[in-house]
Amino acid sequence: MAKMTPRTLSGFMELLPAPQQQMERIMEVLRRTYSLYGFTPLDTPVIESSDVLLAKGGGETEKQIYRFQKGDADIALRFDLTVPLAKYVALHYNDLTFPFRRYQIGKVYRGERAQRGRFREFYQADIDIIGDGKLDIANEAEIPAIIYKTFSTLGLKRFQIRVNNRKILNGFYSMLGLSEKSGDIMRTVDKLDKIGPEKVKTLLMGEEIALTEEQADEILKFIAIGGTNAQVLDALQGYAGKDEIFDQGLSELQTVVKYLAAFGVPEENFAVDLTIARGLDYYTGTVYETTLLDHPEIGSVCSGGRYDNLAEYYTDKKLPGVGISIGLTRLFYVLGEQGMLNPELPTAPADVLILPMTEDLSAAISLATLLRENGIRAQLHCEQKKFKQKISYADKLNIPYVIFLGEDEINAGVVACKDMVTGEQTKLEPAATVYRIKAGLDARNTGSVILG
Amino acid sequence: MAKMTPRTLSGFMELLPAPQQQMERIMEVLRRTYSLYGFTPLDTPVIESSDVLLAKGGGETEKQIYRFQKGDADIALRFDLTVPLAKYVALHYNDLTFPFRRYQIGKVYRGERAQRGRFREFYQADIDIIGDGKLDIANEAEIPAIIYKTFSTLGLKRFQIRVNNRKILNGFYSMLGLSEKSGDIMRTVDKLDKIGPEKVKTLLMGEEIALTEEQADEILKFIAIGGTNAQVLDALQGYAGKDEIFDQGLSELQTVVKYLAAFGVPEENFAVDLTIARGLDYYTGTVYETTLLDHPEIGSVCSGGRYDNLAEYYTDKKLPGVGISIGLTRLFYVLGEQGMLNPELPTAPADVLILPMTEDLSAAISLATLLRENGIRAQLHCEQKKFKQKISYADKLNIPYVIFLGEDEINAGVVACKDMVTGEQTKLEPAATVYRIKAGLDARNTGSVILG
């Protein structure tokens, strides 16, 4: 028979079992952490009607979307988890209780040009808090606190959540009489990290935005404000009293910074950064970006912000919210590339491999049942293979313990158990063996998923 | 602005938060149980190249598949998890260690005619064990034992795993000189439950299959063999010694039944059933179907079997295996319809709602942190709302505990905590409050997801 060459589409991540175990571990940390903060899990369809998904319309989105016809239906794959959330909240409004806190970890699809480290199918891990009519500023401080907790639990240390407030920027541009140009200016300033201040100035004074040199200098001076969070807030105080929106933004930012400290987020892990604007017009208050301090070249691994109107394309109801999204597949890829995934953590499919040495498997099966009842992942190896091959199987899969169960052991009521790392072998009663294995597994499981 | 009416496509399940929590709980049980038996989690792309996905080609599959063009690529959404597994194993053959045990819980897509309880996007939860060249019969007994364990852990009691062996059927048809017609016969016999023995007989003697009445009667007599598993095996023994394949199948079935008992599967939860054949030619040995005893009308909720050649369309390597698949979305739907989802289990997004009664949130935040560190899901309610509205929020979401934290409590170093079910209110130190809440949550979490 002619064979079809098996292949996976480029831009689609497909992991081998060991890295997949690491990915599962990360997802489990996300689920658990988000749950601890009162977020409920949500799962929405991957496919939606195209008109629903593209209600906002236009832009890059439409070009990248996977959209197709099935029968009479014009349907498409979701390209983020925010539009499905907006649809969900508008559709189920009467069945939800607000503030509505949900997390969703799911695959999204974008037909980007395939290149190294860019994915067409990737996981996003989102949390959002949606209010009905209004939403307290405290939520804008809790969101980065959750991200801090999540990354810390994963083991990440050298990261920084950078925080700004769009009202400060809008208010400041209003002071300069540049309100109408604020969108263009923010998009340009957003490039600061990549192209530097000189080129930003040139763009600001270019044909399109057409600022005076004085205005451009004012802006560059403003976004150059740096130092500790207290110093930045002090410097901003110098601009206060001139614009209502600015003052409101400053007050919000002060509150967020105060509560972030109360939430136990260390200074080194968050910074007020006036250059952060987020490209989307959608954001109206606090905005976030998160960078890995040793890998700024990756850009933001977790971004979001406050918006005033989640579902304006579907409903007249005003639904303000705040949310943040981790680009999980890309983050995982980068962590792998940088050797930051802890190789010490178990990635074997089982904790124990049981080698029955008798024809009758009953004793081996009973032992496997005992181990499993104690939460130990046990695999029976019943294949007709040589002993050496079976040991090599455990070796290749990094299964930490191998148990031999022969006539002698069964008659003596003991279990021969070998630690595959130390080589140490014990002959103990089943209960004592369980105890020893559990202690060993606990010791192996102490590290975090991410190193550094 | 004109609004787009939000809607979800028909045939796509989208759950409200409370049932979603139940679904998550079921998935968690599946993941944990499968892991305990040494299965490693796998995640493959939802989209594959159409030629890869349809390598086997033809049939119902091709009509139902979501297939489309993106740029130059002819791509499609997976319609099961078996074809992606075959591709995965063939593609990554050199990086895998055999026997390879994997589980996968993922969405698959079939453009079926939309009807109540039928889904176009649905979860399958699969386990498979793949051998390299050969695979021991013990695996064919372990698979239904895992399903028994999974369903029991979920709380399901009234279910039956029905087991047969294709070799017994093939061998039996061979005795009758009907080997070439065995596929047609099995597909017809498979309808027994639905259409009854008389109609099966008519079909067997019809133009297409054209058996003699004697042959048809022999077959009906054979598949009518019933009773306890021991009785069925005894009756089958009467046919032994006439056909090698039959004898091999009988021996395998005897082994499977013996080990199922060793695995602790009670007689009432599995039955040798000679009418089970599974439509697919793909299966070559043991086959399984699982029915809910009180809802036979649903058909099988978990099916599978032994196959000789997982990846024959991709590789010359012989990769025998055995696997089983739970149609999770449909099962969940049915359980909900039948009122079998335990309403006593917590579905709230949080265990505790904290109501800060002071301007400064620091004390409330510290308390929330303490609760979370103790594994208690805590939500801060900081909205500017009336006290009564906040209580009503906890009520609507079924949050079991509400904590009030005012100036008095903060100064006294205590926490006022109300049990929302009993109405009982305590004022205790934070540590004692944690203890009380944990005990209460443990008591609430004792039931299983499924009733009956």
What descriptive keywords fit this protein?
16 strands, 452 residues, homodimer, 3 domains, BirA Bifunctional Protein, domain 2, eight-stranded mixed sheet, Rossmann fold, alpha+beta, 16 helices, five-stranded mixed sheet
Mean pLDDT of chain A: 94
Query: In one word, what is the shape of chain A?
Result: elongated
Percentage of residues in strands of chain A = 15-25%
Poorly predicted residue ranges of chain A: none
Number of domains of chain A: 3
Query: What is the CATH domain class of the largest domain in chain A?
Result: Alpha Beta
Q: Given the helix and strand composition of chain A, which structural class is it?
A: alpha+beta
How many E-type strands of chain A? 16
Q: Determine the number of helices of chain A (DSSP H or I, runs of at least 4 residues).
A: 16
Give me the CATH superfamily of the largest domain in chain A.
Bira Bifunctional Protein, Domain 2
The main pleated sheet of chain A reads as: 8 strands, mixed
Q: Any idea what the radius of gyration of chain A is? A: 27 Å
Please bin the fraction of helical residues of chain A.
25-40%
Structural write-up:
2 copies of one chain form a homodimer. With 452 residues, chain A is α+β, with helices and mostly antiparallel strands. Chain A has 3 domains: 14-130 and 309-341, BirA Bifunctional Protein, domain 2 (2-Layer Sandwich), CATH 3.30.930.10; 154-300, Bira Bifunctional Protein, Domain 2 (BirA Bifunctional Protein, domain 2), CATH 3.30.930; 352-444, Anticodon-binding domain (Rossmann fold, 3-Layer(aba) Sandwich), CATH 3.40.50. In chain A, 40% of the residues lie in helices and 20% in strands. Chain A contains 16 helices and 16 strands. Chain A has helices spanning 17-36, 50-53, 59-64, 82-91, 138-154, 166-175, 182-189, 192-204, 213-223, 229-237, 244-262, 328-337, 362-373, 387-396, 407-412, 430-444, and strands spanning 40-41, 47-49, 67-70, 73-77, 100-109, 121-130, 159-165, 270-272, 283-292, 302-307, 321-327, 352-356, 378-380, 401-405, 415-419, 425-428. In chain A, the strands form 3 sheets. The first copy, chain A, has an 8-stranded mixed beta sheet with strand order 1-5-6-11-10-9-7-8. In chain A, strand 3 and strand 4 (73-77) form a beta hairpin. The longest helix of chain A is centred in the N-terminal third of the chain and has 20 residues, at 17-36. The mean pLDDT of chain A is 94. Chains A and B meet through helix 1, strand 1, strand 2, strand 3 and helix 4 of A and helix 1, strand 1, strand 2, strand 3 and helix 4 of B.
